[in-house]
Amino acid sequence: MASEESAGKLRLAGLTKRFGPAGRRLGSAGRRFGPAGRRSASSGEGGVTAVDRLDLSVPAGSFFALLGPSGCGKTTTLRMVAGLEEPTGGRVLLGGEDITGLRPYRRPVNTVFQSYALFPHLDVFENVAFGLRRRGVPDVAGQVRRMLALVQLDGYDRQRPARLSGGQQQRVALARALVNRPRVLLLDEPLGALDLALRRRMQLELKRIQTEVGVTFVHVTHDQEEAMTLADTVAVMNAGRIEQLGPPAELYEFPATAFVANFLGRSNLLAGTVLGRGGDDVLVEAYGRRFSVPADRARTLAGAALLGVRPEKVRLAGTADQVPDGHQWIDGTVSDAAYLGVSTQYLVRTGRGVELSVFVAADGEAPRVPVGSAVVAHWHPRHAFLLTHSSTDTNADSSVDTNADSSVDTNADSSADTNADADAATGAGSVEASRS
Ligand SMILES: Nc1ncnc2c1ncn2[C@@H]1O[C@H](COP(=O)(O)OP(=O)(O)O)[C@@H](O)[C@H]1O
Ligand SMILES: [Mg+2]
């Protein structure tokens, strides 16, 4: 029996989902298909491996974000946790108990979808009360009122969903899920339909609510800023697999792969060769120049490597003799300058065809550097990091943002009104499971 403490601990062990070849689509008639030819989850032999031997541990009571581009397998992962999709392999464990074979409504898990999936014919109060009534729970009114207060919707009890704003509807969806006291709340791009300002406000709200209820939140998003704002732990997912998992600052400061380095913020990645150790540093040759990285910031000690440095860690000087002691540099020409108010983003094209991205904070001190200027881009080695250069890294040598897929996920669960999804949303029956 799981202790109260670990009851919300979620573990995915080797979780895998393989969809059949096109034409013999499994699941709900192709509604999850993205644009043809999208390089997302690994495909082959006509099938798609949407989730590929995923291992993941989510501590009880934590705010966990699953971050990745559209099509990388986030929704499929959540649906397997909710019981809406049957895994091809692997297990789902909650509080140490194997729930892989449990029917969705028997799992102490609720889901909040991007589309809210509210009942249009029921008012706010009845939407929230739905799961409680189905299970014949006493004191429905008291519990619903407490939930509406939690999401700051007191006084809206008798409104129909259609009369509410997007943000308010999302709050109702949250209240409706949380009123069932799930051990884990799954949120699938829940703020994706809101405009930017409202999304930022709702992010803070979500965080407050999670802290207040202490339920384990697993939040799926393709928005790196959202993941970093909300989560204690972020797992970066790519093509069905987890590339790196950790606190946001750790992932940002020391990414494990080129994908993470460019999905969580941006990075300049210089392709080079490791020359070896030199004291506490690792020495690298790239573009005919030598660079170093502290050994504890190097993920490889030999062979082909990518020397990474974040654009905001790079400074611009006019000439090499203006570069501070201890800094490393590469010279080039400013090929683009974008003034963004809080910063100016420069592109510096070096003699060897590498383009560096440089963000200069608008602190009122730094002069604007005109396009065409000869400059020296420099940084302190403690801000650099070194990655293994694998053949699959496509974004080496460029600072181009790989968030190409950051367009809003079109997999909005518009068909969330299927029975299973409605159960997942309202949690009808979920208390049965948590009583055990
Ligand atoms: N029912 C399905 N049948 C076939 N392929 C699917 C199905 N659901 C998802 N896929 C495919 O699995 C991959 C992952 O999809 P999904 O989990 O929805 O990604 P995400 O939520 O990260 O955008 C995609 O390539 C998608 O096209
Ligand atoms: Mg999705």
Automatic annotation (TrEMBL):
Signal sequence, start to end: none
A GO CC term attached to the entry: ATP-binding cassette (ABC) transporter complex
Highest taxon of source: Bacteria
Domain ABC transporter: 10-264
Chain positions covered by the region annotation Disordered: 21-46, 390-436
InterPro entries per the UniProt record, alphabetical: AAA+_ATPase, ABC_SmlMolc_Importer, ABC_transporter-like_ATP-bd, ABC_transporter-like_CS, Mo/tungstate-bd_C_term_dom, NA-bd_OB-fold, P-loop_NTPase, Transp-assoc_OB_typ2
PROSITE patterns per record: ABC_TRANSPORTER_1 (PS00211), ABC_TRANSPORTER_2 (PS50893)
Keywords noted in UniProt: ATP-binding, Nucleotide-binding, Transport
Name assigned to this protein: Spermidine/putrescine transport system ATP-binding protein
